[in-house]
Amino acid sequence: MIGPVAYRLTLPPELSNVHNVFHVSMLRRYLRDPEHVVDYENLEVQEDLSYEEQPVQILDRRDQIIRNKTIPLFFQTVMEKYFKRKSKLESSLSQEKDDNYSSAKQSRIEINLVDLPADPGLRPRIMDYNANDRDRIRKAYLQKGLCQPRDHNFPQKSFGQKLRRFNQAWFSEFPNWLEYSVPKDAAFCLCCYLFKPDIGNQAGGDSVVGEGFSNWKKKEKIHTHVGGPNSAHNQALSKCQDLLNQNQHIETIFFKQSDQARIEYQTRLNSSVDCVKFFLRQGLAFRGHDEFENSSNQGNFLELLKFLADHIQKDIVNVAAFETINVIIRDLGDALFCILIDEARNISIKEQMVVVIRYVDKKGQVIERFLGIEHVANTNALSLKQAIENLFFRLGLSIFRLRGQGYDGASNMQGEFNGLKTLILKENPCAYYVHCFAHQLQLALVAVAKNHNQIALLFTLVSNVVNVVGASCKCRDIIREKQAAKVVEALNTGELFSGQDLNQGTNLKHAGDTRWGSHYGTLVNLASMFSAVIDVLEMISEDGSN
Fold first, then answer.
1. 83: which residues sit within 8 A by CB, 6+ positions away?
2. What letter would DSSP give residue 156?
């Protein structure tokens, strides 16, 4: 013995060419097999202590895994000195027996799962069990639970000038895999014991599987053993969870389905995606006014695919939006860009911020793309800037690539001290601000209209007419009927022509205070429906006089 883990053999001088030192790691536990008891004959040893040997049988096969390469190993260690010479018939029978020997060398002894060693330091290696029994043994250990003797008085060990011992709080910190062996005073990992691949000393060896971890002053090595999401430990932990939940595992459920069921599901899914793409491309509504089962019209999508649930169509729409934004971001690349922002309320009275980017693509063309609508709880400059930063973070954009910003003239947008443009300019001086030309035109037109008495009177009268005519549903129905009758009469006389997108139903709408285009639309509709509006006003006048 030359050390605690190495031994030297005393050999005669004639065998000086044989290496006489071996390490204890070369020793393996022997599992008794009745077939290993064989007859032997006298060995004829020469004067120089040599003898003639001849391999006669393959006793074991093993695959050595080296990274991505597998090397088959054959152990031919049984020599002629241990076996009697066999006839040709016996040799042929022995060769047939070799083909099935790998399954016979580990005899199937009935294992009592109740009597499995509970202490991790006393367990045999999982690979020492028969391959057909390993999953049952693994499941039995997982169902039995971890070996965590919380009431044990953990002994202290000397590390330099300090005494340290196993900390009971580690059981709560690592509740899914940490075990403690009382005889060995060491910590073990149950998941790695059950599923860690046999790769020798690679990836940290077997410190938490074979000998156990007992270096109590270096707790960080436990975290090192856990590693990242794809570490050997986490993969073993995932396999433990899959073994306990095999009935709920996605692979089990998937393979339970028949081929016909999978084909039908794929057909329905493809049809659903095609319908969603069609609705998005055409700008059609998914929902209907009445989507109950007894409804005669459940809406476009449910009428086309009644089996599709509401959350699925939302998921598909969200995926389509996500992919569209990804295409925009890829086309933008590392180029500089500008942003156009405006806020407005939706139909549910929620403040929303619309974000549009402008950039020059690789062909030299100016591209303007809609990025999305962000909900904002407040319209002050700080809230809007925070919403912009959150959007840039999700899309992988940097505010330092911003070279322009365009907003309306509101104080929260273009304020010199606390406006949105000022906050962005403080962070990026190259993000020049440009007052939106559409808003400038709107302000100029409103100012001109207010300073001209006749124009101001005109829009006041138009607003009053719209309020009177659209005051009740009865008035609206009457104006629709009269307008439809006049359209039919004009078609018969040849004043109007029929065709696609011609003579569509119109209605009077209130003009917006901040959108000059809405004033134009109101005037156009009033001019086209002028005669019908006059008839309704006369009817209202007659009803009032009566």
1. 38, 39, 40, 56, 57
2. P
Report how far residue 430's alpha carbon sits from residue 409's, in angstroms, rounded to the nearest whole number.
20
pLDDT at 43 > cutoff 80:
no
Q: Which amino acid is at 209?
A: V
Provide the residue range defining the domain that includes 122. Answer: 113-244
Q: Do the Cβ atoms of 439 and 409 come closer than 8 Å?
A: yes
Instruction: Establish how many alpha carbons lie within 13 A of residue 439's alpha carbon, considering only the half-sphere containing its beta carbon.
Output: 14
Pair of tokens at residue 49: 């202590």
Residue of 380 and 199 predicted with greater confidence: 380
| C-alpha distance from residue 58 to each of 42, 78, 79, 94, 515 (Å) | 22, 8, 10, 10, 91
Using a 10 angstrom Cβ sphere, with 0-12 exposed, 13-18 middle and 19 or more buried, the burial of residue 433 is middle
- Pair 424, 491 in one domain: no
Q: What is the mean pLDDT of the chain?
A: 76
CA dihedral 126, 129, 132, 136 (to 10 degrees): -60
Map residue 164 onto helix, strand or coil. Answer: strand
pTM: 0.37
User: What region, left, alpha or beta, does residue 170 occupy, with left being phi > 0 and alpha being psi -120 to 50 degrees?
Assistant: alpha
The one-letter amino acid code at 93 reads L
Chain centre to alpha carbon of residue 268: 24
**Statement: residue 375 has pLDDT above 80:** yes
- Domain shared by 147 and 42, yes or no: no
End-of-domain residue from the set 391, 407, 435: 435
Provide the strand spans (E) within 319-408: 337-345, 351-360, 366-375, 402-407
Find, among 479, 460, 483, the residue nearest to 471 by Cα.
479
Query: Alpha-carbon torsion 172, 174, 177, 178, what sign?
Result: negative
Domain assignment present for 337: yes
Q: What are the φ and ψ backbone dihedral angles of 74, each rounded to 5 degrees?
A: -120, 125
Where do runs of H (alpha helix) occur along 109-164? 134-144
How many structural domains are present in the chain?
Answer: 5
Among 39-48, 125-134, 366-375, which range has the highest average pLDDT?
A: 366-375
125 shares a domain with 236: yes
